[in-house]
Amino acid sequence: MPKSPLRPGLALFILIAGHAFAGIFTRNLGAGLEEIADPFVARIARFFYTAFSATVSVLGPVIIAFVAFLLFRLWRGKPVQWGIDILGGLLTLRCFVIFVLLNLLLLSQLREGALLLTQLILFLPVITLNFGWLYWRLDAGARAEGRQQIRFAEDDDSPSVFDYFYIATRTLLQFEPTGASAASRTMKALFVIHSIMMLDLVALTLSRAISLASGG
């Protein structure tokens, strides 16, 4: 079976984009803290924003140096997969933390709706880039060893990078990965988690819209 390499350069830039959107989400949350009427949710949001700001302040130069180091090694043709996996793991962690925060915002009282709408829009590229990378990373690694984690509907032995992000993007519209099936327990679990997260956001958003329409 042909190998399906991860293409570390492209993976690195995709993860940088994912972290950028996650950072914008957090900064926008900090700018809209006064819009959160629920004291408990406001405290959690303020703690997360303060922790993020402190981390960026202290570790910002280190993170920038680390990314520059990976780019330099990539330019020199040296292995950088370990560094890319670190960035990918951190993006996955940020994605789930943001998901929890977004749920709290959807369930709490807000003085204005602009914060919630902006945060929802900013979260969509975070979850899409994160799960697209996870699908790509796990399946490409398996194919390099002659196995598969994902079976595509077209039965293509050499799927492109676009195919993995197409799966992640379709989940935004149909709430479950389409055009492919999971070929391992790990991927089945990942498909289920992705679907549950999208269904959760859609259900809470609809219930919030109905509540606002009815004057609640």
Mean pLDDT, as a whole number? 84
Describe the global form: flat
Straight-line distance between termini: 57 Å
Rg result = 19 Å
Total strands: the figure is: 2
- What structural class do the secondary elements suggest? mainly alpha
Q: What is the topology, as strand order, of the major beta sheet?
A: 1-2
Strand content: under 5%
Helix content: over 70%
* Unreliable stretches covering 5 or more consecutive residues: none
Please give the domain count. 1
**Helix tally?**
6
List SSEs in N-to-C order.
HHHHEHEH
Major beta-sheet overview: 2 strands, antiparallel
Keywords:
single chain; 216 residues; mainly alpha; two-stranded antiparallel sheet; 2 strands; 75% helix
Which helices and strands, and how do they pair?
Elements: H1 8-31, H2 39-75, H3 81-107, H4 114-144, E1 150-152, H5 161-174, E2 180-182, H6 185-213
Antiparallel strand pairs: 1-2
Structure, described:
- The structure is a single chain.
- This protein is mainly alpha-helical and 216 residues long.
- It has one domain (8-213).
- Helices cover 75% and strands 3% of the residues.
- It has 6 helices and 2 strands, in the order ααααβαβα.
- A two-stranded antiparallel sheet has the order 1-2.
- The longest helix is centred in the N-terminal third of the chain and has 37 residues, at 39-75.
